[in-house]
Amino acid sequence: MSSNGRSRKALAIQFMKFNAVGLLNTAIDMILYTLLVWLGVHFAIAQVLSYGAGMANSYVLNSKFTFGGTGTSSTSDKSGSLRMGARFVVWNGVILAVSILFLTLMTTLAGMNELYAKLIATAVTVVINFYGSKRWVFAGARAN
Question: What is the mean pLDDT of the chain?
Fold first, then answer.
């Protein structure tokens, strides 16, 4: 197989891993959000808590499983991990803000049910999150 064919295959595998992790993150997020709203927690607070739980899972699994590190513990690797972690937190803060904006617009202004609004906000932010994660958060990380 040519190196171009191997790189396409590696990218496809990475994409599948990212989506598998994303499905788990979304399940964690949706289940916790639904539970919190059902318990009477305001939708914005429920979104912060549920998104945070999915985000923690995402960082652990994507940094180890999807994009993989070098496996060494040199100082430069640690500083690279810190930079990647900082980018992850910043990017997910942006995604969280966008999702809360969508939830607020759909529930408060449009009168939509919180759970339906969550489904729509999730669909929109998944696309944005993949692009930013691939191009900025995990840029330069070695794929397994």
Answer: 85
